[in-house]
Amino acid sequence: MSAAAMPRRPAAVLFDCDGVLADTEALHDRIMAEEVSRLGWDISPEEGARRFRGLAWEAIAPQVEERLGPGSVPADFLPQLIARVVRALEEEAEPVHGVLAALEAITAAGIPVAVASNSSRAELATKLRRLGLTEMFRGRTFSVNDVARPKPAPDMYRAAAASCGADPQDCVVVEDSVAGARAGVAAGSRVLGFAHEASAPALRAVGAEPFFAMSALPFLLGLTPVAAG
Predict the structure, then answer these.
(1) Helices 25-38 and 45-52 sit at what angle, rounded to 10 degrees?
(2) HSE of 217 in the Cβ direction (CA atoms, 13 Å)?
(3) Are 19 and 174 in contact (CB under 8 A)?
């Protein structure tokens, strides 16, 4: 590809966390399924992923109550769930393959990065600490507790762009969920959808550009003339 045909470099790159920075989707799916099943809805991790992945925790309890009836979700369900997830993250969270090298290439090019996640503040801080990314994202870290509306609303990505001194329309969002991709598109950003298995059509349908390996990210951002192998 010629230099003229390369993608335009963004003013900032705004990352989701789970499934993009941290390889934690399976962990979340497992714990959520176990905790929801204890309430009486016998749900598998796979079904839980289809129903809940990409949503804020606060959006899940109403779906459970709709299924099981009013009052079926105890008041301490969410804090106990988050506490269990944080404990698991301390021991199990690992980086998505290739993302650390991609981050190094982006920051070496002088492009600021931010992270925007529907996780709680405690969860997100734990993941970044476990991955060694706390300093890289310091001052540019946004959780569900930091904005008025979680994804798929655009609030989080607008705040992330502002923290980088950039207009959302000049930023690239890197997402792996439909809810997150909707948020990036609603913010006016170009959205790259990190696709797994059969997720590419769903991401494409909401306006994301699917890609399948983090090694391709610098190329997609206009930082390298060809994608890494």
Answers:
(1) 100
(2) 30
(3) no
